[in-house]
Amino acid sequence: MPATSTLDYRKIRQEKIIKTLVNKDLSIQFEDHLENEMILNMGPQHPATHGVLRLLLKLDGESVMQCVPELGYLHRGYEKLAENCSYHEFIPHTDRLDYLSPLMNNTAYVLAVEKLLGIDVPRRTKFIRTIISELARISSHCLFVGSMGMDIGAVTVFLWTFREREKLYDIFENLTGARFTTSYTRIGGLSQDLNPEVLQMMKDFVEQFPEKLNDCEKLLNSNRIFVERTDGVGAISPEDAISIGMTGPNLRATGIEHDMRRVEPYLLYNEFDFDIPTFTGGDCLARYYVRINEMKQSIKILQQALEKIPEGPIHAFEPKKVLPRKERVYTKMEELIQDFMLINYGTEPPVGEIYHAIEGSKGELGFYIQSKGEGQPWRMKIRSPSFCNLQSLPKLVQNSMISDVVAIIGSIDPIMGEADK
Amino acid sequence: MNKFLEKSEIKRLKDLTFWQKLFIPEIFKALKITVKQIFKPSFTIQYPEVKFQKPESFRGSPILVEENGVERCVACGLCSRVCPALAIDVQAAETTLEKERYPEKFEINMLRCIFCGFCEEVCPEEAIIMSSDYELSFTNYNDAIYGKEKLLVPIEKVKERLEFLRKNR
């Protein structure tokens, strides 16, 4: 019997497939051609889905009947990774959650760990953390305005907001040493102090930013194409928004004044004077207005913070919890031992669990840490705002046109790095 | 009641004036704003030809400091312990010099390194620091694993960074 090669097998299989297909009745009967539903696969490589978000849309003509978002394409298992990292080692991982405002994630994470350890940081550190959080918020909202404009067809604004972000990245680079993956905050302090030159850069930025933002607004606010594509599109009621768990600007666009900076003041937010922009409607246009006004409020906070920033140390004096200063490590024995102990075994927090949330640029960004008194967290849960906001997508896109889906995704501003963790 | 909610002034479709709805005059208004930008100085730089100004806090790829012909490193292994990306591999050996230990093998996998600067921060000997080098390219995997011969840099060349660290850390 002759040996059968792989090619022959393939040929036989192909013939079998054709045979089964031909034997079956393949003709489909349509009664009305317009009454058919179509399944459209949008993403995960679609440019308008802001990353790797996959949507399965059930279409009736051009209107969306149903939408199933599929998440998890960027899942890197950060919650599990955290269980095998010491508290210090996990700081660079937080950069990669919401990669548009890494400084804010750094701040949120160390605030949670400091709450667990019971460290009180100096006042100057609190000031710097407040400043970088607000700068990160501006950076993130700038990208929102630009990318949402571009999704709808206004490309100029995209370039202008990216120019502003470039200035911010220059500040971050001077401050932290890296443009994107900043890893700036440390448990009980910061990696390095804020120089007077960087402070001046921040002041210059704050001074010129409102004018540039005004230019962007002039192009969008009374632009008929922009208004027509966002007004009333993707509206959600306040009740639905709460039950889904939306937070941040998306929730405030429905008229609910909920901001972690007011509800549970952290850092120095109760010392500054600012408003919480709230609009009614809950549609794409309201979400756009909330973010534009939030940037203006951030500038207001920054102006106050940059004026009042005090001099002083930036590290908490907690030798058993905070990494020692370098010049003392080089010369003193105790600090050297402390350096080795903290890195090899990690800071040892009390047994217990804490949750700390901050108002991130996308919403409530919380870290829930369960500790068993070891150097690593026993369990860490990251409450990422993008993930919760994305749950509203099926509700938002229902009965809207397929071209509105792009505007709606742009307006809820999901960051897949954060949603998939 | 919220201040913002009371005077919330979203410009919806019904609020647009007749001229704004007509769109043609609006195009010219917008063109006026955009054309103004032409006369402003350009913001971009021509990257490969023009290099950007690196700030002194810039974190580039990690290097080892070489002092008096030998490395400062005493192979304590703290950098490889703290490295979040597990990029550093150190193997210690004994030496007759005053410091008694030296790294027999010191390898950094540049494909894994995330330039976070933690190794620099924890080093008790000021032996590993971040250079200002950021343009790394390799043609195969083995080239990306930097051994001691590629990592060692004489102390004279990294004076600026060492001074910055002493001032700021």
Describe it for me?
The complex is a heterodimer of chains A (421) and B (169). Chain A is mainly alpha-helical. Chain A has two domains: 12-70, no CATH class; 91-317 and 387-419, Cytochrome-c3 Hydrogenase, chain B, CATH 1.10.645. Chain A is 51% helix and 11% strand. Chain A has 18 helices and eight strands. Chain A has helices spanning 6-23, 78-83, 91-95, 102-117, 123-152, 155-176, 196-220, 224-230, 238-244, 249-252, 260-263, 284-308, 326-331, 333-345, 385-390, 393-397, 402-412, 416-420, and strands spanning 37-42, 54-60, 63-70, 185-186, 189-190, 352-359, 364-371, 379-383. A three-stranded antiparallel sheet of chain A has the order 1-2-3. Chain A has a three-stranded antiparallel sheet with strand order 6-7-8. In chain A, a hairpin with a 2-residue loop joins strand 2 and strand 3 (63-70). The longest helix of chain A has 30 residues, at 123-152. The termini of chain A are far apart. The mean pLDDT of chain A is 85. The model of chain B has no long low-confidence stretch (mean pLDDT 84). Chain B is built from eight helices and seven strands. Chain B is an alpha+beta fold and 169 residues long. In chain B, 24% of the residues are buried. Chain B is elongated and about 90 Å long. Chain B has a domain at 62-167: 2-Layer Sandwich (Alpha-Beta Plaits), CATH 3.30.70.3270. The longest helix of chain B is centred in the N-terminal third of the chain and has 15 residues, at 24-38. In chain B, the strands form two sheets. In chain B, strands 1, 2, 5 and 7 form a four-stranded mixed sheet that branches. Helices cover 31% and strands 19% of the residues of chain B. Classes of the chains: A mainly alpha (421), B alpha+beta (169). At the A-B interface, helix 3, helix 6, helix 7, helix 8 and helix 12 of A face helix 1, helix 3, helix 4, helix 5 and helix 8 of B.
